[in-house]
Write the structure tokens for this entry.
Amino acid sequence: MDILLVEDEPKLGGQVERALVRAGHEVERVLEGPKAVEAALAKRIDLILLDVNLPGFDGFEVLRRIREGGVAARVLMLTARSEIGDRVAGLKAGADDYLTKPFAMDELLARVEALGRRSGATVPSDVLVMGDLRLDTARRRVSCHGERVELSPREFEVLLILMRESGRTFSRDEICERIWEREHEYDTRTVEIFIMRLRKKLAAAGSESVIETVRGVGYVMRSPS
Ligand code: CA
């Protein structure tokens, strides 16, 4: 499995990483909340082992942001004894399982295997990733840095066209035809309005991906990376 390990304690993190690698998993380890969100959104991961107390923001916030961003990976929370109690209910809302520290490595591996078997049944949704933007076609959701970007259905359609073939220039007519298909009564100026609103929303979300105007031709989506 592809596992993201989020644990800032060097000794424990190292031990867990080695145990998982020995068990045949691919492991990426990060040490802080923001990096965990970034890593979870950047590629498809099967399982996330998530510590609660982390630099940046905590494991609960990581969980909230990645779920908001459409990440369907299984999540196993690693919690200290003092953090259980009333947080268990919250944990269960977004996490798949939790394990209390200190734990035996065999116990951890058994939980990981159990979660792996469960996640085998889930179908990954079609997610387009472009720089800091993530577009989930099944859920019709867009997020930037793990935060949801609220778009109207038409704005979503325009962004989907541009992101699906990023780097390709689309004319206004082409975008109109794809959105309205056989309805001939469209006005290409409405596309300009959607593009303008999208640019504002993406900029407000802090995205570095931009919709560029290609003079006399149309629009193209570009990401700095
Ligand atoms: Ca910690």
Notes: The chain is about 40% helix and 25% strand. Residues 127-222 form a domain with the Arc Repressor Mutant, subunit A fold (CATH 1.10.10.10). The mean pLDDT is 86.
